[in-house]
Design goal:
It is found in: Membrane. This is Golgin subfamily A member 7/ERF4 domain-containing protein. InterPro entries: Golgin_A_7/ERF4. The protein is of the alpha+beta class. It has one domain. The protein contains five helices and five strands; from the N terminus they run βαααααββββ. The strands form two sheets. Strands 1-3-2 form a three-stranded antiparallel β-sheet. A hairpin with a 4-residue loop joins strand 4 and strand 5. Helix 1 runs antiparallel to helix 4. The longest helix is centred in the middle third of the chain and has 22 residues. The radius of gyration is 23 Å and the shape is elongated. It starts with a strand and ends in a 20-residue tail after the last strand.
């Protein structure tokens, strides 16, 4: 498996007990510059945030769940939990569809909703190599990303390539 660079989009709004957040950071990470178009990224993260917001339980349901938690031994949290588990399921399904979009698939960019003990984030990962089109058949070839080598100041014009 090739090495991948990851970017984490942290939660921005209210989190539930299981760690899922109502929305995640929608600022374009500079690490994705040159790999993904900023409008494609913004469209994808807005779709994820809108899906979570649409399926998020109403304020009354969440307040009821937390307020009656002690009296019901935590059973009152099942009401908002059902809505939030639906939101998580639909967000994961949407992320699977986002991963299949050509703008992300061709660049090797993968989105993932990561949930850990009481917290969550969206992980955007991409390979440490670039993919460039090869020929007219549409195949892709891996090209190592390298910084340009500095030219020495002693190089003469005869050594430099000329454009015709």
């Amino acid at each position: 498996m090739e090495p991948r660079t990851t970017v984490r989009l942290m939660p921005m709004h209210m989190r539930f007990v299981n760690g899922i957040s109502r929305a995640y950071d929608d600022e374009f990470p500079p690490e994705l510059q040159g790999r993904v178009d900023e409008t494609q990224f913004t469209h994808a993260i807005n779709q994820i945030n809108n899906t979570l917001t649409d399926y998020w339980p109403c304020l009354f349901c969440v307040c009821y769940g937390y307020a009656c938690c002690i009296c019901t031994g935590g059973l009152s949290l099942l009401c908002p939990h059902m809505c939030i588990s639906d939101a998580e399921q639909y967000a994961r399904t949407l992320i699977d569809r986002i991963n299949q979009r050509p703008c992300f698939e061709d660049a090797g960019v993968q989105w993932k909703l990561v949930k850990r003990c009481g917290r969550s984030y969206i992980e955007v990962s991409f390979p440490n190599t670039n993919y460039t089109k090869k020929g007219t058949l549409g195949g892709y070839e891996k090209v190592l990303t390298q910084s340009p080598t500095p030219r020495s100041s002693a190089a003469s014009d005869a050594d430099s390539p000329t454009l015709l």
